[in-house]
């Protein structure tokens, strides 16, 4: 369990959940931001860069889960404008262009002015289905610290997975998920020393994303970020001490002892 031992029992000092807010800044026209409406002074907000299923250019498509994430002290940037349309990339050749734009924006703006609370040192990239493929295209960006793959896997063969060295978490929808076989294959292709976790919940490809707060998938996503980006040891229990299994997930993991130290945000 790679949490800073000096503060392993500390939890972020937030009165949760916070009111959330979604907006569309002129400086990032092809994205939608989800963040606490009024973050307490001094509260650091780790960043989630999110890719939508279906390569959708609608930045609010996954608002149920991103509202939930934001209300627990995160700054989430989804690809696509507010209620926008079109495609973010070609499904047959997913690209990381919009995720890189979001990373560049965070690097330029985080910690200054109205974005003073945003913490550019704690960034996870994740996405569902096509968004997961777009995430795989940006995994090796040095600004990305953790990778989340939801209902997704490489289309034809595992060419990226054998190269991934950063901690990666797979959230699949069981055997009825059309990405199940590919996600399973990719997970097995990861290098032995790559910290990894995989959960399968038998709910299919669209999982529980349409439920309130995105149901069990939204809960797992929020606890994952709360652990790896905020350093909340209590949230790590979901992954390390049977919480996911109790929630109905079939779990597999390896090399989690090689996770980098995660210092809690106070």
Word description of this protein:
Helix 4 links the parallel strand 7 (168-172) and strand 8 (196-200). This protein has 266 residues and is of the alpha/beta class. Helix 1 (63-71) packs parallel to helix 5 (215-228) and helix 5 (215-228) packs across helix 6. The model is unreliable at 1-13 (pLDDT under 50). Helices cover 24% and strands 20% of the residues. The chain is built from seven helices and nine strands. It has a single domain (17-258), classed as Alpha/Beta hydrolase fold, catalytic domain (Rossmann fold, 3-Layer(aba) Sandwich), CATH 3.40.50.1820. The two termini are 19 Å apart. It has a nine-stranded mixed sheet with strand order 1-2-4-3-5-6-7-8-9, with helices on both faces. This is Alpha/beta-hydrolase. It comes from Trichodelitschia bisporula.
